[in-house]
Amino acid sequence: MRVELATNRFYLAREYSEAVEAAGGLPVHIPLIPNPDFIKSVMADFDGLLLPGSDSDVDPLRYGHQPHPNLGHVHPEKDETDLLALAEAEDSAMPVFAICFGLQSLNVSRGGTLIQDVVSQHPNAIKHEQGLPRNRHSHRVRILEGSMLGQLAGLDSAPVNSHHHQALDTVGRELVATAWAPDGLIEAAEDPRDDRWVVGVQWHPELGWERDSLSLSLFGRFIEEARKFAATAEDRRQESATV
Q1: Catalytic status, residue 100
Q2: Catalytic residue from among 15, 100, 165, 187
Q3: Distance of CA 127 to the CA centre of its chain
């Protein structure tokens, strides 16, 4: 979830849950309680982890950088909860689908770094904060041939929306960049290991899944991988019961 400081409440835009449910999943919200025992307990029966966007920025101290003058709000409980959830998913090889801020959290969890402000730090950047309407396509991305994203798209490029002022800089361990904006910014990353499914995109497929084929395919594949994970988890429980 996210945290709204003005009203002191947790919340999450409805589109994430609606997209998961429409793809055949059962959405469950994780409140931002950065307690390792709580996160371990609440994720014990999960089959997949979706990391949504946020109106905050990842604290640059978490990747060894000093704050840029244009750094946005930092919500420590959001950062810490994301990182704890990612650690649990990594330990169990749980499927992970990371969106916008979620991709940035994923990258930082793997030791990667971020561009703190695209406009001032990335020369010749296109407009990455498109504004309203949020679900329209604002630019295309070039997709790596042979990547999971490329398989889903069926093409070497795709149109996407854009709502971010930060982006991936140095790519973290066990991640490979798989899509780029026209200005060279990384727009997607995947874990290349065969024993897990971890995909992050910088755009917001939850805003376009009803009309956009790639967005629908991303959520569909995420739920498909969650089902596979659930089946193998049940096999492991049965094996443990017979030992």
Answers
A1: yes
A2: 100
A3: 21
Q: Of 15, 163, 204, 225, which one is the catalytic site residue?
A: 204
Phi, psi of 175 (to 5 degrees): -130, 145
User: Residue 233 — very low, low, confident or very high, per pLDDT cuts 50/70/90?
Assistant: confident
Give residue 146's region: left, alpha or beta (phi > 0; psi -120 to 50).
Answer: left
Has residue 237 got a pLDDT over 70? Answer: no
Q: CA 15, CA 181: separation in Å to the nearest integer?
A: 24
Mean pLDDT of the chain: 96
Interatomic CA distance for residues 63 and 172, integer angstroms = 10
d(CA 86, CA 158): 28
Express as a percent the part of the chain with pLDDT over 90: 95
Interatomic CA distance for residues 124 and 168, integer angstroms: 16
Told to judge if 234 belongs to the known catalytic residues of this protein, a careful annotator would answer no
Separation of first and last alpha carbons in the chain: 39
Q: How many C-beta neighbours within 10 Å does residue 151 have?
A: 12
Q: Annotated catalytic, 137?
A: no
Q: Give the tens place of pLDDT for each residue, 33-64.
A: 999 999 999 999 999 999 999 999 999 999 99
The residue whose two tokens read 């949020």 is 134
Q: Which of 15, 88, 190, 206 is catalytic?
A: 206
List 157's β-bridge partners, or say none: 142
Tokens of 138: 């604002």
Beta-ladder partners of 51: 98
